[in-house]
Amino acid sequence: MNSTLVSRNVLLCAAAIFIASCGTATFTKSGSDATIESLRSFQLAFIDEFAVPGKKFNAAAFNAKVNEGNARFQQAIANDKFTARRPVFVDLKAVFDADAAHIKSKASRGKVTPALASEMKKNVNKTYDHALGR
Amino acid sequence: MPSGDKKKHKKPSRKKSELDSALDQVGDESAAAAMKEFQDLLGEAKGDTSELVWQNAEELERYLVLLKNREIDKEDFDYFVESQKRDLRVFIDAQPAQAQERAEKLTLHVLEIAATKVVPILIAMI
Questions:
Q1: Residues in chain A with pLDDT < 50?
Q2: pLDDT tens profile B65-90
Q3: Do the Cβ atoms of B80 and A119 come within 8 Å?
Q4: From the list A40, A102, A127, which residue is nearest B1 (CB)?
Q5: Terminal C-alpha separation, chain A
Q6: Amino acid A46: pLDDT
Q7: How close B80 comes to chain A (CA, Å)?
Q8: What does pTM read for this prediction?
Q9: Domain limits of chain A?
Q10: Is B71's Cβ below 8 Å from some Cβ in A?
């Protein structure tokens, strides 16, 4: 009788721990999703600010924004609790680095076109959708 | 902020695309054969059931049309193709071994033909 009671309590405890860990994982993933959405918004705004046809390239403003982006991505990589997502953040940072380098190269020579900016934003949205598993 | 513009896959139209019309004008015989190979592969990729494969084909076609219309230049085209290759490499490596060859043919190989054979001809036509 006693051993049955103990077994039942052990099972209940195990079930409670499992349910709690599922809840934590869901909470952690939704926090991670929010971080990804925030990075997406940042990267789209970055393109809107610097990939503008005819706009004079402001190197100081550009470098400051790139530094801000680097800090945001590093923070996301370091702080994300959903560890399975860490490589995804590293990939997203690589996309940001590549976009920034291409925008710098084109904008500093006044060679940005509306199609370039529009296609870059489509690419960013596609990459972030993939990162979120959509 | 989700992009919200995820497209549904439409069956590729039999109507000639803007790109097809441009590539059909290639007169030189060996170049015309390469263009035919490219158009066939692109058509096959656009009709593929894998989202990443048909999306890649549609994006490539769009980049080629933008290049032909001078809305982007070759640097931009190369940049977009390199971005696509990075995405695709992960996708191909994740496929079962027997599916990898076909996936590679319909993605990386199509991009390669576009960059090495189609783009120089399109640029010469501009």
A1: 20, 22
A2: 999 999 999 999 999 999 999 889 87
A3: yes
A4: A40
A5: 51
A6: 98
A7: 8
A8: 0.80
A9: 28-131
A10: yes
CA A95 to CA A42: how far, in whole Å? 13
**CB contact A61 to B (< 8 Å):** no
pLDDT value, residue A133: 81
Complex ipTM: 0.80
A132 versus B13: which is more confidently predicted? Answer: A132
* Inter-chain CB proximity B76 and A116 less than 8 Å: yes
Residue of A nearest to B81 (CA): A123
Write the DSSP assignment of chain B as a string of letters: -----PPPPPPPPSSPPHHHHHHTT--SHHHHHHHHHHHHHHHHHHT-SSHHHHHHHHHHHHHHHHHHTTSS-HHHHHHHHHHHHHHHHHHHHTS-HHHHHHHHHHTHHHHHHIIIIIHHHHHHH-
The reply to whether A119 touches chain B by the CB within 8 Å rule is yes
Contacts of B87 in chain A (CB under 8 A): 127, 130
Interchain contact, A127 vs B87, CB within 8 Å:
yes
